[in-house]
Amino acid sequence: WQVHALCLMPNHFHLVLETPQPTLVEGMKWFLGTYTGRFNRRHQLFGHLFSGRYKSLVVDGSGTGYLRTVCDYVHLNPARAGLLGMAEPTLESYRWSSYPQFVRGSGLPVWLWRREVFGRLQLPDEGAGSRRRYGAWMARRTREVMERTATPAARTHTACRPGRAPGAPPCRPSDRRTGATLRCARRPPLG
């Protein structure tokens, strides 16, 4: 498989990948079973980690720009969900996404392909200049998303998010009038 983007969210994940061979069903069965089993053993849990069957959509990568749009959507998902810190809302701070590897110079896993996404933005290569330009592009997009979603409810929801691991149950804000604090059900961190 060639992974173009990924993002692990609290109760689901996004994965943009290319399958040169028709092995999506077998691969997803292995991936979901292996990841869930390892996560549950590591954290002494049991049962399903993600609800429901995975959903797959065909993305035409023939030059229409749709692949880049889908990858941008996946990378911007933490901003949309209010998972970035309000003080410094950067996508690089969300470690459960492929975005940090897109803008870093080293540590790119062999299975992650940024070439297609960079090519759709007409960036010449994967060098430092291209990574910087991609980072600037996504920073602008992040600010736009944060401005659109910056409601009091989103800020309250975000306030209980730092340190929560993907797969943890949602936060339940308590009554603000009584002065009670936000309580989050926590799942052990992934790292």
Care to describe what's here?
With 191 residues, this protein is mainly alpha-helical. It contains 6 helices and 2 strands, in the order ββαααααα. A two-stranded antiparallel ribbon has the order 1-2.
Secondary-structure blueprint:
Layout: E1 2-8, E2 13-18, H1 24-42, H2 66-80, H3 99-103, H4 115-120, H5 128-149, H6 152-159
Antiparallel strand pairs: 1-2
Helix pairs in contact: 2-5
Helix content: 25-40%
Q: What value does the average pLDDT take?
A: 77
Derived from helix and strand composition plus strand pairing, the structural class reads mainly alpha
Count of DSSP-assigned helices: 6
Bulk shape: globular
| Radius of gyration, taken over Cα atoms and rounded to an integer in Å | 18 Å
Major β-sheet strand ordering: 1-2
Characterize the main sheet: 2 strands, antiparallel
Low-confidence stretches: 153-164, 169-191
Number of strands: 2
Order of SSEs:
EEHHHHHH
Terminal CA distance reads 24 Å
Strand content: 5-15%
Q: How would you sum up this structure in a few lines?
A:
The chain is mainly alpha-helical and 191 residues long.
